[in-house]
Amino acid sequence: MDPNIQRALNDKLYDKRKVGALELERIIREHSSAGDHQRVSDILDQLCNDYAYAVHQPHARNGGLIGLAAAAIALGQELPRYLAKIVPPVLACFTDQDARVRYYACEAMYNIAKVAKGEILVYFNSIFDQLCKLGADSELSVKNGAELLDRLVKDIVSESAASYVSVLESSSDFNGDDKSDFDDPSSQFPTAFSLPRFIPLLRERIWVINPFTRNFLVGWLTLLDSIPDLELVTYLPDFLSGLLRFLGDPNADVRTSTQTCLDKFLNEIKRISRVKKGISDTKRMREGGKRKRQDSADSEIPRVDLEEGDEIHSDIGDEDDQDDLDEDWIPGQDVEINYKEILEILTSSLDSPLEEDCLLESLRWIVDFLDICPEEVLPFTPKILAHMLPAMASPNEIIHQAATRVNGALMDYVVSLADEPTFNNQPAVSQGQVQAQSTSRLLLSGEKAEGGNSNRASLTSSRDLEVPGPAPVPQQGRSMSTPTGINTSQQQTDLDYGAAVGSLTLLFLNDHEATRVAAMTWLIMLHRKAPAKVLSNGDGIFSALLKTLSDPSDAVVTKDLQLMSQISRTSEDSHFASFMMNLLQLFATDRKLLEARGNLVIRQLSINLGPDRIYRTMAEILEREDDMEFASIMVQNLNNNLITAPQLSDMRKRLRNLDSKDGQTLFVHLFRAWCYNAVATFSLCLLAQAYEQAYHLLQIFGELDMTVNLLIQVDKLVQLIESPVFTYLRLQLLEPEKYPYLYKCMYGILMLLPQSSAFAALKNRLNSVSSIGYLHVAPKSTASTSNASSYDRPNRLKGREESGIRWVELLDKFRNVQERARRASSLMNESDGMLMGVSDLRIGDGPADHKGKDARPVPVDAPPLPPKDPTPAPPAPAPVKKSGLGRQFGRLGGAVAGKNRRN
């Protein structure tokens, strides 16, 4: 360079450097026009080495930058061959410590890019990297200069990135950022801008936290996505994870621009999906039309008489091939989107409860993906469930609604899938039956047989609809929700039932009730679709379900019982018996659970599995129970529910009908287990209207230790007698001649009770019917003559004995069980070294009460209404002074005894 130009470029004043640059521009233009490329190259080398790379001379660096910009302007169309010399020193100045050098570097690169246009894209990565850093520069002038350069580069990328090919692509001395692509022999005409080479840089930069840099990146992503031929959406998995984090940025502008960018990507994915689906449908319709035309042509061939050597030529295939060739290309039809990797990122971002915006966007994408590509979402179901169900309990209403939408859409899709389709090489159904399924979400008709897993329960019914028969299930039936164009092999989904069950089971420990209820709902649905797969982990899930019975939420426990009932319905009887044994064992070890949840468990199981099955099975297990105390408590709970639960009204009606074989069998089953609790056994007899046997039980009560607990149970029984369940019993008090032992039972209870509110209530009840009872009792003179006809079947005892109930054996069973309980209690007291404080509490009528035979009432001749009772308050004297209700009952008892002796 001319010495004057050198001095001018090295001056500290900008105006003098500018004058030197203008003179340098004129000289380079002259040499370039003359073709003196060597001289131009020497000048550029001098500008780079002596000026631009002069680290400790800021004025020289500024002069070198303005000189390189002037040289680029002077070279014009010849600039591409010199870019390898000009661009690197300018890029190096972007990182200079002096803010003025960084600014002039932006200015120089702006002028160079303005002349080079598409050629500058060869260095796009380097320029982008520097602009990414300068966007967060502390100096405002540098940021403004970088913004100007950024806008220019964006314009160049928008115009040329998709198609521009460098003029030096065949040059051997090319040394740009994209040289590896140019050296690739498989790429004959590579573009200057390389998206595959840019993505690794973007993947590195996407994790920045500076809001200015984030805005810079979002702006570039939006621009690149808007260029149709680049198809940036193909590389979405490479930067989606970092982009989602931008939604949690404290800067509102960053969040807004990021949300807009993500919406564009999602809309583009939807558009591409629609295009591909439309093309697939069109091809399918065309293939169907081709087959119809071919069938039509084949049907006409037999009508033509062909001679040897003649051939038939058809243009049908040629026309179809020509249609394929003439088919218009639709943007997006050849774009491949990696749904799997995108879903990996979305499900991973669900595990970010503190980043609510990120969580919300991931849920929104998953909902849309369930509409776009549900088969791709299905393998991620376990992971989605693990994070989505907790989000349903979010205090943020927007997140709650989004998670609920995902839950509903995902469950709808899983429900719509074919239930474990079977193939020809699989064994036949082992049970020889298929149960029809009826759900609120899906109606399945003609489902294919499922090996060993065909026993499915309905969500809306507590009973299964069984279609017995060894014949195979017809194969023409198909799920109504299964797409027509998808074959059976495609319906074999990738849902990992084991992982899904594991994820849902862990959610039992979640703090939120809504999450636990949702997890139970999912398990119920999955078990209905594939019982064997859900239970493939053995007893692990069943143990978790049993532990969940202690959940503080009634809704969770109800769902838990529904699932266990469903499992029991679709399993063998041995599995159900094991379930009942485990349940009773849990109650035995956790008495608080029995107290808090016992009634709910019994009633829900009765609803889901039928009260008869529950009570019979529990009675059989309790009859063999060694823990007398627990058996008594459990029987008491079962009995209270039997009397009070509305769900067991049918069972109570069956018990009251002891004339039928069904009622007798049920009564005997329950009685043998109820023997562990004296009051429960007595109330069972009252419920079954076996009043004579109830009276005999009262006689055995006199031999028992009247503990406080027993008296409390009697007190509760009196309250139950006053309830609507025993309305029929209270009405029967109006017919003393027909139900004589009922009066004896009621007064027997009265004699057992101490002076208490229950005693007063029962006494008032009996007093209120005593005077009415006199009106219906026949006169004394006619009583003996009417005994034979009026009491031919006293209290239906004879009919019952003839029907098969062995009352004596049952009473002996009761006596033996109560004696075992007494001995067990005594042994326990002796081992503890002390007696229970309430064991000695007895109620007697005299000093001989401690003797067993005196404590037992006279079975026949003793009147049920004691004429003398010093303990209770004096009753109304009127009934006692009349002809004697006690004497009337004595006659009734004598008549009954006499008839029995005659028989």
Structure description:
- Residues 282-316, 847-856 have a biased composition (Basic and acidic residues).
- Residues 282-325, 446-490, 838-903 are annotated as: Disordered.
- Keywords: Membrane, Repeat.
- Residues 860-878 have a biased composition (Pro residues).
- Its main location: membrane.
- With 903 residues, this protein is mainly alpha-helical.
- Among the domains are: 3-193, Leucine-rich Repeat Variant (Alpha Horseshoe); 195-291 and 332-337; 645-903, no CATH class.
- It is 63% helix and 1% strand.
- It is built from 43 helices and 2 strands.
- Strands 1-2 form a two-stranded antiparallel sheet.
- α6 runs parallel beside α8 (140-160) and α33 (691-701) packs parallel to α36 (740-752).
- The radius of gyration is 47 Å and the shape is elongated.
- The protein starts with a helix and ends with a helix.
